[in-house]
Amino acid sequence: MISVAIEFIGTLIILTAFEMLGQSYIKPLINTMAFQSVLLAILIGILGFQKGSLELIILAILTLVVRGYIIPHVMKWNIRGNKIWDYREMTTGVPALVITGIFLTIIGYGLYQTAFYPLFKIKGGALPIILLLLGFLLIIARKNALAQMVGYIMEENALLYAGTLLIPLSFILEAGVLLDVIGLILLGVILAEEREYGILEIEELRG
Q1: Which of 64, 161, 170, 203 could form a disulfide with 128 if both were Cys (CB 3.0 to 4.6 A apart)?
Q2: Where are the domains of the chain?
Q3: Are 64 and 38 contacting, i.e. CB atoms less than 8 angstroms apart?
Q4: How far is it, in rounded angstroms, from Cα 207 to Cα 194?
């Protein structure tokens, strides 16, 4: 029953990745990123209770607080009241981007089944690899720094997802904390650059 729940949540996480690929506005993009992080926190928490691992439970709480609340809250606080963020960040190319995402999903699944499944023997292990590829696609497809930051958080979620499934527990908590610190530092750099140089022009937001 628990394995079914884990696979279901993993599937929802992949669906949120496709929602982000097809999303043209910054605010819903941030909200979806937060929802994805909450789903990941729930998944890690379930695994933690299943394995009786305090490290995973702590990691689930950190993921919920930092990626599910603090980072999205800071990003939305920064763009509040600025009408420029109500414009589309992408006006064309969304269908092609989603199709590319489907293609990468097939590649990720095939890669896991042929190269990694014989080593790990974990049925849902392809999902974090797929998420990693979709996050990379989001980063390279967007020109706006905040949208790329969302892609980076998706990459972090993918690595943490893979870590909880495939890596020994002794490394997971340290890696999760390190990724959160790096994410907060990158967000701080982005916001500092924006304060120095001003908000991006509408044409830049349109990509």
Answers
A1: 161
A2: 2-205
A3: yes
A4: 17
CA 2 to chain centre: 23
Neighbours of 145 (CB within 10 A): 17
One pLDDT digit (tens) per residue for the chain, 207 residues: 777 888 899 999 999 999 999 888 888 899 999 999 999 999 999 988 888 888 888 889 988 998 899 888 888 887 776 665 666 666 557 788 899 999 999 999 999 999 888 887 788 889 999 998 999 999 888 877 788 888 888 988 988 888 887 765 555 555 656 666 666 666 666 655 555 445 444 344 444
Tell me how far apart the terminal alpha carbons of the chain are, to the nearest angstrom.
Answer: 44
61, 26, 25: which is closest to 42 by C-alpha?
61
Amino acid at 41: A
Q: Amino acid identity of 128?
A: P
Q: What whole-number distance in Å separates Cα of residue 102 and Cα of residue 106?
A: 6
